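Please describe our next protein:
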Amino acid sequence: MAEGLYRLGDYVYMESTAPPQPYQICRIEELRKNARGSVEVYVKCFFRRKDLPQSLVQLADRHASQLEDDHIYELQEERDKMKAKDPSYVDEGILEGIWGGITDVARHQLKHRELFLSRQMETFRIDAVRGKCTVTVLNDLESIMSYLKEEDRFYYSMVYDPNQKTLMVDKGEMRIGFRYQADIPVLLSDPLTQDTRQEKDLETSVWIPSRIPDEDIEKFLIIARSVGTFARALVDDSNNINRMPLRLGAATASRDITLFHALDTLNTSNYDLSVGISGFVINGRPIVCCDELEAWTAEEANLFQQGEALFVCLFVCLFVYLLLFTPVT
């Protein structure tokens, strides 16, 4: 990607109004033109520790300390469990995890990489953008020291409200990793007992690999996207489908719903390409594969993107708090 090319969702440095201050870090929510024809960026702002009141800085310190203490406790628990299962187990540092091996100097440096998410939105001129950076939610999948190994990389785990002067833990934390996996019980049935059930009676086959070459599958998917684009050009007032420009229609026809339908059609046609292609036309008209996103407004799509950053995979909370009346399946 070109250095000067910016897209929605990019994390960028914005020039501060006070030159001695470091760049403000934001996420691009929208690119638009003003009445004078100039391009502006509508962004969501992140805050640094220096922007927080002292009382909230102390709260952030206590939260980080609590995270580290909890991790050390869980780590010791996991080590004890593994030693109980295997007395010969030797810890070789595999379970160090996110907080393993942090020095006081590294802990101080990490404070300069920590950000605080907010819901504050601002508009800047496009020439105020000073480059890209990376911002991720703090999680257990990688060592926290990795944020110091790369330039322009930051993390956050708390949400700051600059109006109410409050700081809370981001509810989008994903509890994943070996500490949250279920223990598989031993097999209780008789291993000598043969399972007489037929696999075809237990499962529904949706795809059989290696039936046709990958090149033919790719050609079939291109035809499916082309038919979807052509079908959207034929919509009329009797269809519950919004009219859209050709370029946007082609992009919409390339969504997963079209590809899923194409692969399902190919499977049900026993991987016969000619039969599968004929399945794209029903009653003399090409079929249109639509998902719920086509029924959403631009405002609802923006709300979903904001909620995804705030709640991560807690989609129930996302729709209850932000998209209660939005149609979904």
